[in-house]
Write a structure and sequence with these properties.
By secondary structure, the chain is of the alpha/beta class. 37% of the residues lie in helices and 16% in strands. The strands form three sheets. The protein has a seven-stranded mixed β-sheet, with helices on both faces. Strands 1-2-3-13 form a four-stranded mixed β-sheet. The two termini are 42 Å apart. The chain binds pyridoxal-5'-phosphate. Pyridoxal-5'-phosphate is lined by residues 64, 124-126, 129, 152-154, 224, 228-229, 257, 259-260, 285.
Length: 443
């Protein structure tokens, strides 16, 4: 690894070169494309991003849960180098190639459930979610789709309709696709009496679905097993299994959107594995290919194959470079036991953050699994969301060279998505700055 795995600040954040680039960005790039941090990247490896001024930043975001195997992971880089020297594109729908088939085989093998599966590859998470809905509609001959409060599924027209939060994802961008319905989620921190009762929270959701949609109209229930952008909300135990059971009994396709949770991120290979949930279709992206754009829908052969020939595809879906990267990333996850490493990161992070919570009543909740951990910030001693505090703590960390992200419907959640290859020392140092950021904000 050529990038030293240490935090090193040589200029204020942002430094002069980043400031120059920010001015060019403002002039040349559409204003709607924002940036979490005001620095421009020059290099990155493992758990460190080096900016154009030479600052070494600790990466607790993984480019939003993408570089799970570490940035520029050696097996990913080698596989892409080898592939780019052979060919860059033919279009799998014109002259297919082995890499695509090999990725499909690995996904069919590794995703939850022992049933026969097939896979189709796409470019982005949103595109794969859209295709899962297309497949479920063809298979069932029904139209409606149920999603949940706080859900995030993407920014295309259909996935905007499926995403819950208006600002910034939907504001002014309608009208949205029809036949999308929203059911209540299990959100233990805010669920009062239902907090620990996943089965009861599922009954509440199923009641809404039955009354407001009707199983006879419903093609698919689409859910993130742990919500990402919505605030790292982990439903109470029993919620997901009860939903799956209802879907099975009612001829509804159960789709797990594991775009953010997949590929060892949560301390299982897939978040569904935690409770032994077997989805009919699983949507993956982000961590699948170590940073190259790739996404997939994998599922029961009879559902996946319901679509007519030519009904699925796209010019770039399953691009050969992205497939080579995916094979390198998957090999890294398996060979280096990154599932086990995610479990260790969970222990370290939950331990420290729970200790901090015991001393700071502005941390309302500490939650998550594996290397997908969050703190929900509230006004002292209440459950009232405090988005300003989350922004201030994140800004403090950024200024000290630690990349952290916020999320949540109320904007009051700080989330941690470190690469699984990051060292304990860097993780600890990053959390030190979160702790210092909380201390720096007057109560
Ligand atoms: C759960 C989930 N689904 C879908 C998406 C959309 O993925 P993409 O941004 O690759 O379109 C995201 C992105 O954050 C996500 O977290």
């Amino acid at each position: 690894m050529t990038v030293a795995q240490e935090r090193r600040l040589v200029t204020p954040i942002p430094g002069p070169v980043s400031q120059e680039l920010a001015a060019r960005k403002q002039a040349a790039v559409a204003a709607g494309v924002g940036a979490t941090m005001p620095v421009f990247a020059a290099e990155a490896a493992g758990g460190i991003v080096v900016d154009v001024d030479g600052n070494h930043l600790i990466d607790l975001g993984s480019g939003i849960a993408v570089t799970t195997v570490g940035n520029s992971a050696p097996r990913v880089v080698d596989a892409v180098r080898e592939q780019v020297g052979r060919f860059t594109h033919t279009c799998f729908m014109v002259t297919p190639y082995e890499g695509y088939v090999a990725v499909a085989e690995r996904l069919n093998e590794l995703t939850p459930g022992e049933h026969e599966k097939t896979t189709a590859l796409f470019n982005s998470g949103a595109e794969a979610v859209e295709n899962a809905v297309k497949i479920a509609r063809v298979h069932t001959g029904k139209d409606a789709v149920v999603v949940f409060d706080h859900a995030y599924h993407g920014r295309t027209n259909l996935t905007m309709a499926m995403t819950a939060k208006n600002m910034p994802y939907k504001q002014g961008f309608g009208p949205f696709a029809g036949e999308v319905y929203r059911a209540p989620l299990s959100y233990p921190y805010r669920d009062g009496q239902l907090a620990a009762d996943g089965a009861a929270a599922a009954r509440r959701a199923i009641d809404v679905i039955e009354k407001q949609v009707g199983a006879d109209n419903l093609a698919a229930v689409v859910i993130e097993p742990i919500q990402g952008e919505g605030g790292f909300i982990e439903p109470a135990t029993g919620f997901l299994p009860a939903l799956v059971e209802w879907c099975r009994a009612n001829g509804v396709v159960f789709v797990a959107d594991e775009v953010q949770t997949g590929f060892a991120r949560t301390g299982d290979l897939f978040a569904c594995d935690h409770e032994g949930v077997v989805p009919d279709l699983i949507v993956t992206a982000k961590g699948i290919a170590g940073g190259l754009p790739l996404s997939a829908v994998t599922g029961r052969r009879e559902i996946m194959n319901a679509t007519h020939v030519g009904g699925l595809g796209g010019t770039y879906g399953g691009n050969p470079l992205a497939c080579a990267a995916a094979l390198g990333a998957i090999e890294t996850i398996v060979a280096d036991d990154l599932v086990g490493r995610a479990g260790k990161i969970q222990q370290l992070m939950l331990g420290r953050l729970r200790d901090l919570q015991s001393r700071d009543d502005r941390i309302g909740d500490v939650r998550g699994r594996g290397a997908m951990i969050a703190i929900e910030l509230v006004r002292p001693g209440t459950t009232e969301p405090d988005a300003d505090l989350a922004r201030s703590v994140a800004a403090h960390a950024h200024a000290r060279g630690v990349i952290v992200l916020t999320c949540g419907t109320y904007g009051n959640v700080i989330r941690f998505l470190p690469p699984l290859t990051i060292s304990d020392e860097l993780l600890d140092e990053g959390l030190d700055e979160v702790e210092a950021g909380l201390a720096a904000v007057a109560r």
